[in-house]
Amino acid sequence: MTLHEWASAPVLGRELLGVDVYHDVAVPMRDGVHLSADVYVPEGAPVPALLLRTPYNKRIGEVEGYAHPSWYARQGFVVVVQDVRGTYNSGGELRPFHQEAADGYDTIEWVAAQPWCDGQVGTYGFSYPGATQMLAAGEAPPSLKAMVPAMTGSSYHEGWTYHGGALQLAFVLSWATGLGRDQAVRAGDAEAVDAFDALLRSPQEVFARLPVREALPPELLRYAPFLTEWLDHPDYDEYWRAVAPKERYDAMGAPALHVAGWYDVFPEGTLENFAALKARGEAPQSLIVGPWYHMPWTSTVGEIGFGAEARNLVDEAQVRFFRRTLLGEKSGPEPAVRLFVMGENHWRSFETWPPESAELRLHLRSDGRAGSLNGTGALSTDPPALHESPDVWPSDPNIPVLSLGGRSASSAYLTPMGAYDQQSEEGRNDVLVFTSEPLTEPLTVIGVPVAHIFAAADSPSCDIVTRLVDVHPDGTAINVSDGNVRVCWNQTGVREFEIAMSPTAITFDTGHAVRLEVAGTSFPVLDRNPGTRMPAVNARAHELRAVTQVVFHDCERPSSVRLPIVR
To answer: CB count, 10 Å around CB of 542?
Structure first.
C-alpha cells in the first residue's frame, strides 16, 4: 500500500492546516476490536509518528496542556490521536488501566507499519494518557523509541486512587463522574447526561454524600462501574499490581522525558518513574517539574503568580526531545533535571532527583496549646525539654478541616487547587500550628519534606494530616507541601510515624517563616475517617465519631519536620 492509497481523501487538507487530517481511522486490536484514531500527516511522510491515546475525546487532543496535534504535525511528525477502548468512537468496553498495556502495544506497532510512518513511534500525553504510555511501555513494543509521560502514576493505587491509606475523594469522585458522563453520552442517555452534569455543577454535594460507596446514585453508577472496583480494593493487591508501571520498569527501554507539577495530584508517581528508570540506566531519562497544578499549566497557580518563567514550556521541550530521539537532531546540551523553584520563581538545573541536600530538622514545640494561630506552637532547631506538654485536640469528621488549595482534583472548578492562603482554617483549634521565627536569610527546600510525628488517639482509627506552609511577612500562609497517614490503632499507647510529604522546590525568603500544620482531616481532598474500625467508604453520617488525638513533643518523643536544604 502506498501513502496515497492508505485512506480516502483527508477531512482537512494541507491548504487549510498545512497537514492532511484523517478522522476516525479504524485501528485493529488483537481481539478483533477496532479503536478509532485521527491521523495528522505532514508533507514529507514517511516520518516518525507521535501517538496520544486518551479517554477524553481524540478530537480535543488534550489541548488543556498541549498545542493542537496539527501544530505537532507541522514540526515534522505524523500525529495519531486515539480514543481508548470503550470511549467515544472506539469499540469495546472501558475498564480503566486494565486494557491499556495490550491496546497500547497493538496501536504502536500498527502505527509503525503504516506507509506514512518510518517505523519509529514516540508517545506523549498527561494524566490518563500518561498511564497509557507507561502501561504500553511495560510491554516493550519494539517500535516505541521515545515517550513523554506527564503527570501520571507509578501505581494507580497509591498516589492516584488512594494516598496514605485514605481515598483521594475529590479527585476520584470527580474523575469517575466525568468518565461516567462520557459513557452516558456514548450510550445516548440524555437523562443520565443531565444528571451527571448536575453532579458536576455541585461537586461539594457529591463529596459530602455518605456513604462514599453510594456517592453516585445506582442509576448513574452503571455508567461508572469501575468506581466500585476501586473502592473494593483499598489495599495494594493483585488488582492494582496488574496495572502498576513500577512492576514493569525492567521492560522499559525507551528514552523518556517526564513532566510533573508541584501542585499536581500525582507528583510522587511521576518522580518515582523518572528516578527508577534513570537508575536502571537502559535509556536516557529527563525531567521537568513546574509550579503547575493538573490543568491548565499557567504561571498563576491558585492565588499565587509565579512570574513569566512559569509559563507552559512543555510544547517546545517535547519537540526538542522528539527531534533529538526520533530525528537524530542535536539541540545542544540539556540538563537531565529542570526544576522550577518557587519563591525564587526561576528554573534550576540538576543531574538527578532528588538533588543532593543537607537536612534541617525543626522540632515541634509548644506548652500544649498549639491549636490555631492564637496558640503557642513553634518550630525550632532546639530540641524539646524533658516534660514538654503534648498537644491534644478533637478531630470531628462531621466538621472536617477544609482543603484549601493543594493537590485536590482534576479540574480547578471542582475544588480549589494550587497555592492558597491557609489562615481561615488555621484559626481553628483543631488545627495545630507550629511556626518558626522569621528567617534572617533565604532557605531553599528541594526534595521531600518528612514529618516525624509521635502520636496517640482514643479511637480504633484516625488520620494524621500534615501541611508545610510558607508564611509571608503580612501573615499570608501559602501551602507548599502536604502528607497524610491513615492509622489503625491495634494497640494502645504512643506510635511513631514518618510522613513523607509531597515533593517541592521553594525558597522561603528573608522575613518569611516556615510553618507546619497538623490536623486530623482534610476534606474534600481525602475521605473522612469515621473513627471506628468500619471501612471509611461504608460509613454513613450517623456513624462518624469524633476522635481525641495527641501529638507529643518532649525529649523522649521529639516530633519534628525534616527539610532537604539545597544551596
So the answer is: 7
Enter the DSSP assignment of 566: -
Catalytic residue among 90, 127, 366, 560: 127
Per residue, what are the HEC states of 194-205? HHHHHHHHCHHH
**CATH code for residues 3-158+240-350:** 3.40.50.1820
Tens of pLDDT, residue by residue over 107-117, are 999 999 999 99
Question: In the prediction, which pLDDT does 121 show?
Answer: 98
127 is catalytic: yes
Catalytic residue among 163, 294, 363, 512: 294
According to the CATH classification, is domain 358-565 in 2.115.10.20?
A: no
pLDDT digits (tens, 9 = 90+) for 226-270: 999 999 999 999 999 999 999 999 999 999 999 999 999 999 999
Does this model's pTM top 0.70? My answer is yes
Q: Can 264 be counted among the known catalytic residues?
A: yes
Q: Measure the CA–CA gap between 161 and 173, rounded to whole angstroms.
A: 10
Catalytic residue among 20, 264, 482, 527: 264
CA-based max dimension of the chain? 83
What's the pLDDT at 247? Answer: 98
Domain with CATH 2.60.120.260 in the chain: 358-565
Is there a catalytic annotation at residue 357?
Answer: no
